[in-house]
Specification:
Blueprint lengths: L1 H24 L2 E5 L5 E4 L11 E4 L5 E5 L5 H34 L3 H45 L6 H46 L5
Antiparallel strand pairs: 1-2, 1-3, 3-4
Helix pairs in contact: 3-4
Length: 210
C-alpha cells in the first residue's frame, strides 16, 4: 500500500508540474495528511498549514522545508534556550568590556598594585579619622555622664538639658560605630576587588584569558 501511494504521489507531482508550467511548478508544496499519506499541491489546506511542508522544484527535488509549528511546551523550551544564549552573550560582551578597561587603565602590573595600595590607604585613612572622631565623642559622653552622676550624688536630678545631650550624643556614637563598620566593610570589598583585578590582569597578560 505504501509503494502504491508513493507512486501515486510521484505521478501527481509530475502532473501538477506539467499543468502548472515552470514558474508555478516552483510553488509545489508537499505535506502529510492526518492518515500519514503524503500529499502535494500549490496550496496547503488550512488544517495542515502548521505541519512540516516541503517545497518541490520542477525536477521533483526538495529545495526548502517549512518545519512544523512548535507546541507551547516546545516553544517555551526554545524561548528559554534563546534567553540563556542572550544572557551568555551579554556576559561575554561585558567581560570583554571590563577586560578592555583593565588593560587600558593599567599598562603595567605595578601600576595596578600602586592603585590598589593608594586606594586601600585612603580607605584606611577615612576609617582612622572616623575612629578618632568616635573617641572624642565617647570622651564627651563620659564627661556628660560624669556631670549627671555628680548631680545625682549631690541629691539633684540631672537637668533635662543634660539628659537630652547625653541621649543625643549616645545616638551619634551609635551611628558613628555603624559608619565605621560600613567603611571597614567597604575597604575589605575594595581589597577583594583588587585581588580579582590582579588575577584577571595576569591572565590577560599571560595569554590565559578566556
Amino acid at each position: 500500500m505504501t509503494a502504491l501511494f508513493r507512486r501515486v504521489t510521484v505521478l501527481l507531482i509530475t502532473a501538477l508540474m506539467l499543468l502548472a508550467g515552470p514558474l508555478q511548478a516552483k510553488t509545489i508544496k508537499c505535506w502529510t495528511n492526518k492518515n500519514g499519506i503524503r500529499e502535494c499541491g500549490r496550496v496547503v489546506p488550512p488544517e495542515y498549514s502548521q505541519t512540516r511542508i516541503e517545497i518541490i522544484n520542477e525536477r521533483g527535488l526538495v529545495v526548502d522545508v517549512i518545519e512544523a509549528a512548535k507546541s507551547p511546551e516546545e516553544q517555551a523550551i526554545e524561548d528559554e534556550r534563546e534567553h540563556l544564549r542572550k544572557l551568555r552573550e551579554a556576559e561575554r560582551k561585558e567581560r570583554a568590556r571590563l577586560d578592555g578597561i583593565l588593560l587600558n587603565t593599567y599598562t603595567q602590573e605595578r601600576d595596578l598594585l600602586l592603585a590598589r595600595d593608594n586606594n586601600l590607604k585612603a580607605a584606611q585613612g577615612q576609617i582612622d579619622i572616623s575612629k578618632g572622631n568616635l573617641r572624642l565623642m565617647q570622651n564627651s559622653l563620659a564627661d556628660l555622664q560624669k556631670q549627671a552622676a555628680n548631680q545625682e550624688r549631690a541629691g539633684h536630678k540631672p537637668s533635662e538639658k543634660l539628659v537630652q545631650e547625653i541621649a543625643n550624643l549616645s545616638e551619634l556614637i551609635s551611628n558613628k560605630k555603624l559608619h565605621i563598620e560600613k567603611k571597614e566593610s567597604d575597604k575589605q570589598e575594595l581589597k577583594e576587588r583588587y585581588t580579582q583585578y590582579l588575577k584577571r590582569y595576569r591572565e590577560l597578560k599571560g595569554g590565559r584569558a578566556n
